[in-house]
Design a protein that fits this description.
Length: 406
């Protein structure tokens, strides 16, 4: 519980600091945001699972390995060349033991790692720098059973994490990354090493000059200061969007069709109703904004008709895709919103602690006179991000959202 409260504090701190600086122009980032950045990276992940990891009497001659993986990081610059980073490493799909003992058992091993690390950079020239990284990782492995016998057990343990890489500065805001990250093997947990090589980018937020602030303040691009939304979703329309964006959609011969940028969940909501409030924290000149929000969601599960409430506070990033005379179109993404669920075990599945996280992704428009109204399609997910092995996850189908700006 202490670890969870620390994580919640980390994400609430920017919100409280923004509240204290409410008179600040929203195009001028707060002191906290001005030292922050995010990093998105994709590449290959390697973990040498083998028959040696299984209990005696079980083996296979073939394995299904998907090397594609991602790493998401949120960073805070303690000094210009020293940063604290929090993030997650996970594969797009899981390692699988094929046809165990030649009798048709196909079983997957799930693994991911949340990390907290320090990154020290050394400049080679004005554009290129090399960095070293060291920290700790919360490693979670979900193993498997066959006919009630545990063949590869679950594991949850702390590990060292270290790495190195290169940053290439494109401009003041954007940097390219080439990364190598490594977690050593754990003989105690019967866990092989984890290595990742990835390529991506960093986006850094900076304070603006007074001239830039004035320019942004006086332009005609719309950014809502406040949004109040009501949403409803039903499983009668299916979970196609959830499956596609979690790479779980079956199309023809493809069992894992889609884009791996969201999550699905074993628990499925039959009906979901949400009330959401969002407040602008930061905006750029035209394309990007950051809001902080709170929401209450009530959902009923498909399998056992259980009624559950979720109370969340969350950050949400919004990218404006199109600005026309009659409307502004955007996509948004919210990640790791601390949430309290009124039930832990849902549909007879262990979802882990009641303190969990909310993720949402949506596509919407602001329309009407002075962009007073909002319509949005949104999918939602609740889970602890595999911080714990018990993580069934909740999938909320597409919600139809109507909102009012003010």
């Amino acid at each position: 519980m202490k670890k969870i409260l620390i994580v919640i504090f980390i994400f609430l701190y920017p919100y409280t600091s923004n509240a204290q600086e409410d008179t600040r122009p929203k195009s001028q980032p707060s002191n906290f945001l001005s030292k922050s950045y995010y990093s998105i990276n994709f590449g290959g992940i390697f973990y040498p699972f083998s028959n040696d990891n299984l209990v005696d009497g079980y083996k296979t001659d073939t394995f299904s390995k998907n090397y594609f993986s991602g790493r998401l990081l949120l960073g805070y610059k303690i000094q210009p060349d020293l940063a604290l980073q929090f993030g997650v490493i996970r594969p797009a799909s899981w390692f699988r033991y094929d046809n165990i003992n030649d009798i048709g058992y196909y079983r997957s091993v799930w693994i991911n790692a949340w990390s907290l690390s320090l990154k020290k950079s050394i400049h080679l020239n004005k554009k290129l720098s090399i960095y070293g990284e060291a920290g700790i990782a919360n490693v979670t492995r979900i193993g498997f059973s066959i006919e009630d016998e545990i063949i590869y057990p679950d594991a949850h343990f702390a590990s060292l994490l270290y790495g190195f890489g290169f940053n290439y500065t494109l401009n003041k805001k954007w940097r390219l990354n080439l990364n190598g990250t490594f977690l050593p093997k754990s003989a105690k947990e019967n866990q092989p090493s984890i290595s990742q090589v990835s390529f991506g980018f960093e986006y850094h937020i900076h304070k603006l000059s007074e001239e830039q602030v004035e320019k942004h303040k006086n332009n005609s691009h719309f950014f809502p200061k406040n949004i109040l939304q009501v949403s409803y979703g039903t499983s009668n329309i299916g979970f196609g969007a959830n499956q596609f964006f979690s790479m779980n959609l079956r199309v023809g011969n493809f069992e894992s069709f889609g884009v791996p940028i969201f999550w699905l969940g074993k628990v499925r909501a039959a009906h979901a109703f949400s009330i959401t409030y969002q407040r602008l924290a930061f905006r750029t000149e035209k394309i990007f904004s950051l809001d902080w929000g709170v929401s209450v969601t009530a959902f009923q599960t498909e399998a056992t008709k259980e009624n559950v409430f979720a109370f969340s506070i969350f950050p949400v990033v919004r990218f404006y895709l199109m600005r026309k005379k009659g409307f502004d179109m955007y996509t948004n993404y919210s990640l790791i919103g601390p949430t309290y669920l009124t039930k832990g075990n849902v549909d007879n599945l262990n979802a882990g602690p009641k303190i969990t996280f909310q993720d949402t992704m949506g596509l919407g428009v602001f329309f009407g006179k002075k962009r007073a109204y909002n319509a949005e399609l949104r999918i939602m997910h609740y889970s602890n991000g595999n911080i714990f092995p018990q993580n069934s996850g909740v999938a909320v189908p597409v919600q139809f959202t109507f909102g009012k700006t003010f």
